[in-house]
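User: I'm new to structure prediction. If I give you an amino acid sequence, what do you actually give back? Let's try with this one:
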Amino acid sequence: MSDIDKLRRIKTDCVKTLLGLYKRANAGHIGASLSCLDILVCLFFDRMKKDDKFILSKGHAAVALYTVLAKSGRIPESELDSFYKDGTLLGAHPPCSRMLEGVTFGTGSLGHGLSLAAGIALSNRFSGRKFNVYCVLSDGDCNEGSTWEAALFAAHQKLSNLVVVIDNNGLQGFGRSKDVLSLEPLAKKWESFNFEVTEASNGNDFNSLLNAFEEVENRGSEKPKCIIARTVKGSGVSYMENKMEWHYLPMSEDQYKTAVYESGAGNA
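Assistant: Good question. You get back a string of structure tokens that encode the predicted 3D arrangement of the chain. For your 268 residues, that looks like this:
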């Protein structure tokens, strides 16, 4: 089995778990989790080394993170049964308690993640440890001024160990990103902030993602790095894809069965 096939199998297992968690909790943010799941699988099962750090700035996609943490052995799979229940560590957004391996900071209010990631990336100069920091942003994160302040800081400090991945699915809680606050030309904006930038034309495809990581990380630059991943909200489920309402809606029983079937998770 090739590395790509392994990643696809892992992703299918994670989708099965993810959909089950959302259905049992009768919770929303499914579309946001599906759009970034490929990115998280790629990071945790291919790119990241043991000491590397991860920040999910788009904290509303916490279920994608929880499933990947469980699949990679960072949290017990039995912990997933507590999702969305009273007293759980696995809330709708990553917790602030730092009691879960792989969750360095609680996130959710957009615009905070890159500042946290930049601070962690800077810390290795003083700790003597060498590691990379990966931070997944949404296009909504890029509407926030604090994101661009952090980008300026990261470039000024030449944080070459910082890799930003933008889950650019084109939809936010209140509409299409281009209508809420247009970001294009997004690549040129990040380049103007002195980042090494490349794009994954299909951010829900492992070949596209891996090529983007290899391209930007092999440039040998002192600059921080940015990958703009062109993704689809609700990727893999036809009735969710590119639909703003799936930022919020829970699934009915019939919708859940359709999502499991279409994603191939029924055979996982």
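You can read the tokens as a compact description of the fold. Here is one thing that stands out. DSSP finds nine helices and seven strands in the chain.
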